[in-house]
Design brief:
Blueprint: E1 11-12, E2 15-16, E3 24-28, E4 35-40, H1 44-64, H2 67-83, H3 85-96, H4 100-103, H5 106-123, E5 128-132, E6 136-144, E7 147-151, H6 157-170, E8 174-178, H7 185-196, E9 204-206, H8 211-219, E10 225-229, H9 232-244, E11 248-252, E12 258-261, H10 267-279, E13 291-295, H11 299-311, H12 331-346, E14 351-354, E15 358-359, E16 367-368, E17 371-374, H13 381-384, E18 391-397, H14 400-407, E19 412-413, E20 415-419, H15 423-432, E21 437-440, E22 452-453, E23 455-456, E24 459-460, E25 462-463, H16 469-472, E26 473-481
Parallel strand pairs: 7-8, 7-10, 8-9, 10-11, 12-13, 12-20, 13-18, 17-18, 20-21
Antiparallel strand pairs: 1-2, 3-4, 5-6, 6-26, 11-24, 14-17, 15-16, 19-23, 22-25
Helix pairs in contact: 2-5, 2-7, 5-6, 6-7, 10-11
The structure holds NADPH dihydro-nicotinamide-adenine-dinucleotide phosphate.
NADPH dihydro-nicotinamide-adenine-dinucleotide phosphate binds near residues 154, 215, 238 and 286.
């Protein structure tokens, strides 16, 4: 992507900005703690240039490119990303520390999203409404919102960039995307893919930098809509700043999701799922099911298998094929997770069954062993706060009504899973859970054909699925009169 002497740079109006020895910061390799790459943060002038480029190119993209033209650009970008899948995987592993076993699917996931939105661009339009026989009728025009800003978190950088930009561009918007300062690389690969696919200059721009770059984008007067993925705390700031100029906003925020395992569940599958719901991406997933409620009658069997299988996992170099779990993204984040493990040890009666230790320290990498706490209660901080690391809290329950009420006892409303072979109970429970995404007998799958959003403090609005189109378009109503005017005045 960039030679060691050439820092990663923002992509504005179809090209990288000029290299400069100023505004540089370092990216660290999570597996070794050494400097991996330099990044050049965008200057305030470059941030403005990015917004102007997006604003000036948007009208032409919406007007001169038909839905079919736009769809074809997205489909070509999908093929380019698939061709570059190996490079995408290494870049994503380099930036995040996630294993290549996970990141090798990243390009294919992005291609799925591009294909879906390419199809939506061709098929989703307005509506015809009959008002009075042949005499008058109405219709709605689905129009782009205009110049949009996407801001991403660091755990799934390419997914964030594609989930936001693909529908935005499909429906004729332009975008300035700001990845997390920790994970800038794959948004730049995406920008290259769009360019090679024929996207006009200026329609997709990438601004590199920290939160202040994000804040400048959110408050820019030429921006019409902001789609943000990140923490509740930052999401609230973005919401407030966007409200000042009445911009449209979508927020995809944090969670502390419950996974409920009933006594009739297949315990082997339930343990597999609890592991996926907690250890995936070294626990750095917004939707992770970190509050694991297990029916008291199967608790012992569940814990025995969970601890045995977790302690067998191979933790280490994320670029190695055999590695199950990689490092945490940064030293700072590892320290935050360790603080929570300490709080868990000190709080109440919870038992740390395994893990929770810094390991492989000789590598210099940010490695932690996955921690399982049992005997937790609902009010403990490790049960209430989003930790965003491998800290699983296991809680036991006795009956359905009780567990649903306890599962809903959180400020978040992102996701939840239910494990049971009782069909009626499964649907009854998901209906009662106050969260935006639910899984029955599985966890952490997010196909782009289904909506993705958050209830309560976990977000505002939905993206993906057909309903996601509403986040990237505005509707204009048109009344058409074909008959005589019925005038009440002489
Ligand atoms: P942050 O909220 O710290 O940052 C998210 C993004 O916002 C980053 O690009 C950050 O820049 C930027 N930012 C920071 N301050 C501002 C500001 N004032 N105005 C505009 N942008 C700003 O989240 P993390 O990156 O730490 O990501 C982890 C969080 O994201 C977790 O809470 C997780 O649950 C959530 N998340 C939610 C998802 C969902 O779909 N619901 C998916 C993935 C993650 P920078 O970091 O470069 O300073």
């Amino acid at each position: 992507m960039a030679s060691p002497s050439m820092p990663l740079r923002s992509f504005i109006n179809g090209k990288r900005v000029r290299p400069s020895p100023q505004h540089l910061y370092s990216l660290y390799d999570a597996a070794t703690g050494t400097v991996r790459e330099k990044v050049q943060s965008a200057t305030p002038g470059q941030i403005r240039d990015g917004v102007i480029a997006a604003s000036e190119s948007q009208e032409r993209w919406a007007r001169d490119y038909s839905p079919s033209d736009r769809s074809k650009v997205l489909l070509r970008a999908a093929r380019i990303l698939e061709r570059r899948a190996g490079e995408v995987a290494l870049a994503e592993t380099g930036d995040t520390g996630r294993t290549v076993r996970e990141t090798r699917h990243e390009a294919a996931g992005a291609a799925d999203c591009l294909e879906y939105q390419a199809g939506a661009a061709l098929t989703v339009g307005g509506q015809h409404v009959d008002l009075s026989g042949n005499r008058s009728w109405g219709y709605t025009r689905r129009e782009p919102i205009g110049t949009t800003v996407g801001i991403g978190a660091w755990n799934y950088p390419l997914q964030s960039a594609v989930w936001k930009s693909a529908p935005a561009l499909a429906f004729g918007n332009s975008m300035v995307f700001k990845p997390s300062e920790l994970t800038p690389t794959t948004a730049l690969i995406l920008a290259d893919a769009y360019s090679e696919a024929g996207l006009p200059d200026g329609v997709f721009n990438v601004i590199l930098g920290d939160g202040s770059a994000g804040a400048s984008l959110v408050s820019h007067e030429k921006v019409d809509k902001v789609s943000f993925t990140g923490s509740v705390e930052t999401g609230s700031k973005v919401y407030t700043a966007a409200a000042e100029s009445l911009k449209r906003v979508t927020l995809e925020l944090g969670g502390k999701s419950p996974l409920i395992i009933f006594d009739d569940a297949n315990i082997h599958d339930a343990v597999s799922t609890a592991m996926v719901a907690n250890w995936l991406s070294s626990g750095q997933v917004c939707s992770n099911g970190t509050r694991v409620f297990v029916h008291e009658s199967v608790l012992e069997k569940f814990l025995e298998s969970l601890v045995k299988r977790t302690s067998r996992l191979k933790i280490g170099d994320p670029t190695e094929e055999a590695t199950d779990l990689g490092p945490m993204i940064s030293r700072g984040h590892m320290e935050k997770v360790m603080k929570y493990i300490q709080i868990g040890k000190e709080e109440d009666q919870a038992d740390l069954l395994c893990g929770g230790e810094p390991i492989l320290q000789e590598t210099g990498g940010y490695y932690l062993s996955p921690a399982i706490f049992s005997n937790c209660n609902d009010n403990m901080r490790i049960v209430q706060d989003e930790i965003f690391g491998m800290v699983m809290s296991v809680l036991s329950f006795r009956d359905e009504g009780e567990v649903v009420q306890r599962a809903n006892n959180t400020a978040y409303g992102l996701a939840a899973g239910v494990f049971t072979n009782d069909l009626k109970r499964a649907h009854r429970v998901v209906a009662d859970l106050n969260v935006a995404t639910t899984w029955i007998n599985n966890y952490n799958l997010a196909p782009v054909v289904l909506p993705w959003g958050g209830f309560k403090k976990s977000g505002q609005g939905s993206e993906n699925g057909l309903v996601g189109v509403e986040s990237w378009t505005r509707l204009k109503a048109v009344y058409v009169e074909m008959g005589a005017i019925d005038c009440p005045y002489p």
